[in-house]
C-alpha cells in the first residue's frame, strides 16, 4: 500500500507485519464464526421433540424422502432455521451499519425506534387490513423508512447531533410500541403468544411464506451494504475528511440508510423485532475482531449466531418454550446497561 | 441559571407571576377536573343519562345505565388519584434530578414496580392487596436507585441523555424479565398484560382504599418538600449555602416521589409520560416555584389521566384502550419536543 521506493525503514515493516497479522486474525474470526453459524444451523435442524441424526437431516435438505423426518425437518424446522439465519444476518448487518454511520454504539435501529416502527406497521397491516405476505413487508419497509426520515428531520437543526437523534428515537420507539399495543388490543382476543411476536419477536410457526421475502431482501440488499464497506469506514472519520477522501457522503449515507432499513423491515415483517440483536451484534463483533477492518461481515455472522442460539435456548434449554425475542431481551438489556456504565465511567460524552 | 441549566429558565416575568393569575389558573384547572370527572362517568361505550348517574350515586344499580355508572365512578376516582400521583411524582423527580426528561415511566421506575409485583405474584404467591402495594414501592425504589446510579456515573453527572438511556434500557430489561417470568405460568400470563401496560379499567373502591394511605403519605412528603426543591433548583452549593441539607432534602423528596409512583403502579400498572408532560405544562401556567408547581401538577395530572381514559374509551368503541397506551401516544411527541428545545450541550 505504502509505495516506498527506497529501502524501507524498520517501522514500515513493523506496520506491515501488524496489518497482515490483524488481517489474518480477522479472517480467522470470520471463518470460526461461519463454522459456528453452520453448526448452530445444523443443530437446530436436528434437535427437537425427536432427534434426527445428521444423515437424515442432510438427505431431507438434499430433497430425498425420509419417512417422518421429511415433514418435521423439511416443513417445520428448516423454514424456522433459515429464517433465524436470515433475520440474524439482516439485523446484525443493519445494526452495525447504523452504529458505524452514526458513530455511536447506542444508535442501533432497535434503540432508536426504526425496528419498532416497522413492527407497528406490520401488526397494523395484518390486524386491521387483513394483509399477508409481501404486502406486509412493503408496509413495514415504508413505515421504517418513514420513521427514519421523520427522526432525521426532527433531529435536524443546523446539523444532526447524535445525542438528539438518539433521544428523539427513544420517543419514537415509545410511540411505536404503544401503537403496536393499540393494534393488538383492537385485535379482540389478546393472543399472548401472537402478541409477543410483534412486541419482542418470535420464530414460532414460521413458514416458507414468511421466510422467502426476507431471504430475497437479504440477497439483494446485503451485497449493496457490503459494497459500501469502504465508504462507510470513511464516513467514520467525519463528513469533511470523508469527502476529502473522495467519498460521496450524502449518496453513501442515503444508500446505507435505505439498505439497512430495507433489511430490517423485511426481517421484522417475518419474525417481529427480535429484541437487541441489531444492538448487540456490532459491539460483540468489535470485541472479537479487534480494531481493524470493517465490522459488517463479522457483525452479520454474530447476529445470525445470536438468533440461532437464543432460539435453541428459548425452545429447549428451559422448562417453557420462550420466544426468541424474550431470550435476546433478557441477554441484551444487561449488556446495554453495561455499555452505558462503561461509557459513562470512561468519561465519554456518549 | 448557570447552576441549573436543565430546568427551563425562569425568565423574570414567569418567576414573578402575580398571585392573582395563579389563583385564576387554579380555579380553571379545578373546574376542568370537575368537568372531566363528570364526563368520565357519563361517556363510554354506552352513554349514561344524568338521572342514572344520580341514582347510581345513591347506590342504585337497577338499569344498565345505572350499573355502568356504578362501575365508572370508582374508575374515575382511580384515574384522578393515579393521575395526581404520577403528575406530582414527575414534578418532584424533575426537581430532584434537575432534569427536564425525568418521569417515572421514562426512567423505568414504574416498570421496576411492575416487575416486583409480577415476581411477588409468580414466585411468592403474593395476593393480599397491601402486600402488593408494598412490593411495588420496594420495586420502584430499587429501580429508581439503580437508574440514577447508572445514569449519574462519570463526567457531567446525571445528564438528561444518560438518565433517559439508562431508564429506557432498564425498562426494556424489566419488560423482558416480566415476560420471561409470566410466560411459563399460564395461570397468571393472562393478567400479565396489565403489568406491561397500565390501565384503570378494573377499578374498585377496595383497591382505591388499599392504596390511598400510601398515596396520602406520598402526597404529604412531596408537597412538604416544595421549599427545599426550590433551593435545590439553584444548584447544590447554593442550596447548601442557604442552609439546606442537600442530601437529606433530596432523599426525602425522592422518597415521596417513589412512594407515589410505586403505589400508583401497584393499583393501575405502569403508566408513562403523565409525570413528564404535566409539570412542563404547569410550569408554563404558574412558573417554577415548587410551592405552586407541585399542587398544580397533582391536579393537572388528575385531569390528564381522566381525559386520556375518556379518549381511550371513545376511540376504541365498543371495546376500550388502556390509558397507558393513550398517555404514551400523547406523551411521546411531547418528549420529542422537549428534546428538540434543549441545546445539545445540555443533553
From TrEMBL, chain A:
Any one Gene Ontology BP term: siderophore-iron import into cell
Cross-referenced InterPro entries: ABC_BtuC-like (IPR037294), ABC_transptr_permease_BtuC (IPR000522)
Transmembrane stretches, start-end: 28-52, 81-99, 111-129, 135-153, 165-185, 205-228, 254-281, 293-310, 322-341
Protein name (Swiss-Prot/TrEMBL): Iron chelate uptake ABC transporter family permease subunit
Membrane topology per record: Multi-pass membrane protein
Organism classification: Bacteria, Bacillati, Actinomycetota, Actinomycetes, Geodermatophilales
Family that this chain belongs to: Belongs to the binding-protein-dependent transport system permease family. FecCD subfamily.
Highest taxon of the lineage: Bacteria
Subcellular location: Cell membrane
GO CC terms, sorted: plasma membrane
Main subcellular location of this protein, as a coarse class: membrane
Cited CDD domains: TM_ABC_iron-siderophores_like
Keywords, alphabetical: Cell membrane, Membrane, Transmembrane, Transmembrane helix, Transport
A GO molecular function held by the record: transmembrane transporter activity
The keyword Transmembrane is assigned to this record: yes
